[in-house]
């Protein structure tokens, strides 16, 4: 195989792994491609719920053709006994001659041991192929392992003067149907959708993925220190997808009401006049979440930005103006010089129906 072949097959493995985003937490969304004589004989990706892993799926498809073949895996094969046998051992057992990976797994249960197990068995190992692309694809899993928190995507849908509602509070709909459909697709690629209590009180949102067929619903998370929330669509739809509530020293009555509705309550430390944003995300990370899609409101978004916890911003800008009386997309940020403002670099910009999508990554 040439270096160009390695990159081509690894690109496919990364693309396959992305099919598991939002469906496999707390596991990483891994892809695997098995190549024999220049031909693909097996493909696999981490299945819903996190198992089976990508490698045994691809090996099962390859069958006897796996012997002497090369396996391209977007993350180091696991080497520990968990709910499934180690993938490194499965590759050895099926006679794989060469393994090409993009990244070493930072999980301390693996972290080089998978590569070591393969080399000890006489398998040729090449690492670091398309590492940057794999880092981007695995950003959520890597954030949870390295930082103890999921990655956060902040979604903002605004008028071109940065407003999310009129002065009277009307907000449906600022953006068009194409943008809203794309938002549902983005929800589906995240483990959880996060909103603040103000959004629930104002909009009574459902926060499910709709219009995408039968999909695994993301966890719907509400951050509300006092749990002063209406028992609306969220409470009535727990059977459709999990509802988690991050709260502080909330009164006992709403806690009992939400538990009776089937929601899961997670206490979080207070800080800065509300729930501490770092503690919020660490709590979600401890529960296994790797990718969180934050849809506001303005106070929650500002708190996450001020704490340096937003990894990516997805903005949808509509062709209308609401003026200074409209509700701004962000709450107040700490006063300071321009150089201290949260800064992001543009990743892409394109038209979506009658709106403009712009995606930014934290510098």
From TrEMBL:
GO terms for molecular function: 5-amino-6-(5-phosphoribosylamino)uracil reductase activity; diaminohydroxyphosphoribosylaminopyrimidine deaminase activity; zinc ion binding. This is Riboflavin biosynthesis protein RibD. Signal peptide: none annotated. InterPro entries: APOBEC/CMP_deaminase_Zn-bd (IPR016192), CMP_dCMP_dom (IPR002125), Cytidine_deaminase-like (IPR016193), DHFR-like_dom_sf (IPR024072), Eubact_RibD (IPR004794), RibDG_C (IPR002734), Riboflavin_Biosynth_HTPR (IPR050765). CDD domains: Riboflavin_deaminase-reductase (cd01284). In the C-terminal section; belongs to the HTP reductase family. It comes from Frigidibacter albus. PANTHER family: 2,5-DIAMINO-6-RIBOSYLAMINO-4(3H)-PYRIMIDINONE 5'-PHOSPHATE REDUCTASE (PTHR38011:SF7), DIHYDROFOLATE REDUCTASE FAMILY PROTEIN (AFU_ORTHOLOGUE AFUA_8G06820) (PTHR38011). Binds 1 zinc ion. Its EC number is 3.5.4.26, 1.1.1.193. NADP(+) binds at residues 157, 173, 199, 297-303. Converts 2,5-diamino-6-(ribosylamino)-4(3h)-pyrimidinone 5'-phosphate into 5-amino-6-(ribosylamino)-2,4(1h,3h)-pyrimidinedione 5'-phosphate. One of its GO terms (biological process) is riboflavin biosynthetic process. The active site is at 55 (proton donor). It catalyses: 5-amino-6-(5-phospho-D-ribitylamino)uracil + NADP(+) = 5-amino-6-(5-phospho-D-ribosylamino)uracil + NADPH + H(+); 2,5-diamino-6-hydroxy-4-(5-phosphoribosylamino)-pyrimidine + H2O + H(+) = 5-amino-6-(5-phospho-D-ribosylamino)uracil + NH4(+). Its cofactor is Zn(2+). Pathway: Cofactor biosynthesis; riboflavin biosynthesis; 5-amino-6-(D-ribitylamino)uracil from GTP: step 3/4; Cofactor biosynthesis; riboflavin biosynthesis; 5-amino-6-(D-ribitylamino)uracil from GTP: step 2/4. It comes from the Bacteria. Substrate binds at residues 171, 187, 203, 207, 210, 295. Zn(2+) binds at residues 53, 78, 87. The lineage of its organism: Bacteria, Pseudomonadati, Pseudomonadota, Alphaproteobacteria, Rhodobacterales. Transmembrane segments: none annotated. Residues 4-125 form the CMP/dCMP-type deaminase domain. Keywords: Hydrolase, Metal-binding, Multifunctional enzyme, NADP, Oxidoreductase, Riboflavin biosynthesis, Zinc.
């Amino acid at each position: 195989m040439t270096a160009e072949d390695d990159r081509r097959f690894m690109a496919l493995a990364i693309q396959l792994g992305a099919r598991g985003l939002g469906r496999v937490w707390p596991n990483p969304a891994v892809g695997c491609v098995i190549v024999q004589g220049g031909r693909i004989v097996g493909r696999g990706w981490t299945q819903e719920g996190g198992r089976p892993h990508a490698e045994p799926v691809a090996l099962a498809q390859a069958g006897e053709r796996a012997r002497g073949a090369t396996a391209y895996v977007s993350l180091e094969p696991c080497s520990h006994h968990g709910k499934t046998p180690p993938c490194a051992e499965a590759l050895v057992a099926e006679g794989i001659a060469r393994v090409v990976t993009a990244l070493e797994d930072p999980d301390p249960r693996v972290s080089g041991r998978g590569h070591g197990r393969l080399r000890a068995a006489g398998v040729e190992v090449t690492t670091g192929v398309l590492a940057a692309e794999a880092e981007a694809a695995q950003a959520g899993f890597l954030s949870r392992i390295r930082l103890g928190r999921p990655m956060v995507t902040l979604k903002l849908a605004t008028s071109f003067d940065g407003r999310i509602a009129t002065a009277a509070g009307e907000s449906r709909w600022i953006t068009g149907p194409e943008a809203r459909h794309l938002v549902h697709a983005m929800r589906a690629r995240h483990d959880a959708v996060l909103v603040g209590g103000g959004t629930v009180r104002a909009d009574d949102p459902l926060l499910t993925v709709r219009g995408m067929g039968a999909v695994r619903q993301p966890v719907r998370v509400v951050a509300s220190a006092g749990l002063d929330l209406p028992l609306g669509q969220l409470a009535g739809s727990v059977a459709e997808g999990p509802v988690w509530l991050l709260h502080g020293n909330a009164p006992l009555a709403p806690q009992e009401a939400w538990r009776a509705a089937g929601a899961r309550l997670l206490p979080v430390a207070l800080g800065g006049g509300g729930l501490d944003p770092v503690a919020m995300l660490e709590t979600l990370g401890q529960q296994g979440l790797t990718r969180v899609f934050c849809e506001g409101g303005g106070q929650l978004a500002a708190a996450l930005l001020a704490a340096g916890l937003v990894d990516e911003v997805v903005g949808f800008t509509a062709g209308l103006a609401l003026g200074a009386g409209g509700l701004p997309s962000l709450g107040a940020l700490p006063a300071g010089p321009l150089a201290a403002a949260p800064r992001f670099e543009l990743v892409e910009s394109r038209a979506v129906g009658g709106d403009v999508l712009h995606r930014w990554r934290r510098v």
